[in-house]
């Protein structure tokens, strides 16, 4: 198939092919790819990222392997300028088994003493990176192997910071789901006595 593609030189398009492993969440730069010509008549060519598009800034939505012609479905837009972003360090089991990619939407659930309750809903994932097992901290000395970066508002950042500090949270992949309702934490000292 490759030989047949290379022999067909009638109408060619320049596509981006990964020169190295590109992790999910990383902005793809021209240094990471090489330019390759493929015939425009080949059906799958329309679904590949053009080499010239790399200069505009695209993010890997999943890990791209060396030698892979990068499909458009494996990329996303970079974070919009001016947005507040915040990284959430977790273990993979706390974040849908690690199956969260750039471009997804997520909810965050506080599972601490005031939980479980949603503290963030429908947040856009703009970055994702993995660390060696035990390489990150999730608060209170806990270790994590995944960082999920999301866009937040000013108020959401404050609430999320407290939850991250406690380390008791779950990230839910909510791409395409109806938006959940967040709940305010109970006031300090607001308890209900049972039995008088």
Q: Could you explain how this protein is built, in words?
A:
The protein is mainly β and 196 residues long. It has two helices and twelve strands. The strands form four sheets. Strands 6-11-8-7-12 form a five-stranded antiparallel beta sheet. A three-stranded antiparallel beta sheet has the order 2-4-5, with no helix packed on it. Strand 9 (136-137) and strand 10 form a beta hairpin. The longest helix has 13 residues, at 154-166. The chain starts with a helix and ends in a 23-residue tail after the last strand. Mean pLDDT is 78; it is low at 132-143 and 185-196.
- Taking all Cα atoms into account, the compactness measure Rg is 21 Å
Query: What is the tally of beta strands?
Result: 12
Largest sheet: 5 strands, antiparallel
- H/E element sequence: HEEEEEEEEEEEHE
| Helical fraction | under 10%
Counting helices, strands and paired strands, the structural category is mainly beta
Overall 3D shape? elongated
Strand content: 25-35%
Strand order of the largest sheet: 6-11-8-7-12
Instruction: Tell me, rounded to a whole number, the average pLDDT.
Output: 78
- Alpha carbon gap, first and last residue: 79 Å
Number of helices: 2
Oligomer: single chain
> Spans of 5+ residues with little confidence (pLDDT < 50)?
132-143, 185-196
């Amino acid at each position: 198939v490759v030989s047949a593609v290379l022999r067909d030189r009638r109408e060619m398009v320049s596509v981006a092919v990964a020169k190295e492993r590109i992790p999910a969440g990383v902005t793809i730069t021209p240094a990471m790819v090489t330019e390759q010509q493929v015939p425009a008549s080949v059906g799958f060519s329309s679904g590949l990222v053009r080499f010239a598009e790399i200069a505009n800034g695209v993010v890997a939505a999943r890990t791209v392997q060396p030698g892979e012609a990068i499909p458009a479905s494996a990329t996303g837009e970079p974070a919009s300028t001016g947005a507040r972003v915040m990284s959430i360090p977790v273990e993979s089991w706390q974040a849908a088994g690690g199956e969260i990619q750039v471009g997804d939407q997520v909810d965050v659930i506080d599972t601490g003493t005031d939980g479980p309750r949603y503290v963030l809903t429908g947040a856009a994932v703009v970055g994702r990176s993995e660390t060696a097992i035990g390489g990150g901290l999730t608060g209170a000395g806990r270790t994590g192997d995944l960082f999920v970066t999301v866009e937040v508002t000013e108020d959401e950042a404050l609430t999320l910071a407290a939850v991250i500090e406690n380390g008791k949270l779950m990230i839910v992949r909510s791409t395409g789901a109806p938006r959940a309702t967040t709940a305010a934490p109970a006031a300090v000292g607001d308890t209900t006595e049972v039995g008088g």
